[in-house]
Design goal:
Length: 69
């Protein structure tokens, strides 16, 4: 729930609804809450693969950017 609130309060309220979110397979992003939010807002959730590791690094940098906002 904390991650969802962080993204909503710091990103979505500032930039608008995302059309696509790329995430690692963290349970925070695979929960029923996220499934319902994606259906409600019509966003697409894509998961990074284990390789290449650069994809996972991109997700981590984006999360850090959101936390720094």
């Amino acid at each position: 729930m904390d991650t969802a609130l962080l993204i909503w309060n710091r990103a979505v309220s500032w930039t608008g609804i995302f059309t696509n979110i790329i995430s690692d397979r963290d349970p925070k992003f695979t929960s029923a809450l996220w499934t319902n939010l994606h259906q409600l807002y019509g966003t697409k959730l894509s998961f990074s693969t284990a390789y290449p590791p650069q994809t996972d690094g991109s997700a981590e940098r984006m999360i850090q950017t959101l936390e720094d906002m």
